[in-house]
Every structure is written in structure tokens, then in C-alpha cells.
Amino acid sequence: MKKKQKNPYNQSRRELYEHLFLNNRFPLGQKGKVVYIRPEFHERLLRIVQLTKEEKITLYSYLDNVLDLHFKEYGLDITDFHNQRYKPIL
């Protein structure tokens, strides 16, 4: 019987995911705005943040990390999209 080997690609993707999203940058949360999330997404997000055993990550931190990467990855596209639709007055 062959022993199943770990896929190094999947392992490194998981470690990258943990590094990018599962770090608690704001452990106590911050005063922010209320955001409504679909119930099925909210349940999924709560399950994700509860997976961290050593240091409980807050939902606030997780969402902040996701949005931070989103704006880093797509910031120029978002700016271009906006500039194409809303031309400067001058």
C-alpha cells in the first residue's frame, strides 16, 4: 500500500493563505462601520476564523486582510474602471 504524500504545492498555498489572511492584525477589533453580509457568507466566515487554534482571529481582522489583498491586487484596475466612467471636470 502506497503512503499518500503531501502535495508541496497545496502545502505552500495553505501556508500562504494562513500568512495572508489568518493573522490577527486587530485582535480587539476597531471602531468601524456596520457591514451587512449574506447569512451563508457570514456562517462560512465564522467557521474560517474559528479554525485558528493558537490565536483566535477576529472576523474584523480576517475581512480586513481579505480586503487589503483585494485592493493591492486590483487597485489599478479599480482606479482605471473609475476613471473611464467618471472623467475629471478639468
Topology, please?
Layout: H1 8-21, H2 39-50, H3 59-85
Q: How is this structure best summarized?
A:
With 90 residues, this protein is mostly helical. Helices cover 59% and strands 0% of the residues. The chain is built from three helices and no strands.
Helix content: 55-70%
Strand content: under 5%
Multimer state: single chain
* Low confidence ranges: none
Order of helices and strands: HHH
Counting DSSP H or I runs of 4 or more residues, the number of helices is 3
Q: Could you tell me how far the N terminus lies from the C terminus, measured between alpha carbons in angstroms?
A: 72 Å
User: Per the principal axes of the C-alpha atoms, what is the gross shape?
Assistant: extended
Please describe the biggest sheet, giving its number of strands, its sense, and whether it closes into a barrel: none
Would you tell me the structural class of the helices and strands? mainly alpha
> Care to count the β-strands?
0
Summarize model confidence as the mean pLDDT. 79
Gyration radius, in Å: 18 Å
Q: What would you say this structure looks like, in words?
A:
There is one protein chain. The protein has 90 residues and is mostly helical. It has three helices and no strands. The N and C termini lie far apart (72 Å).
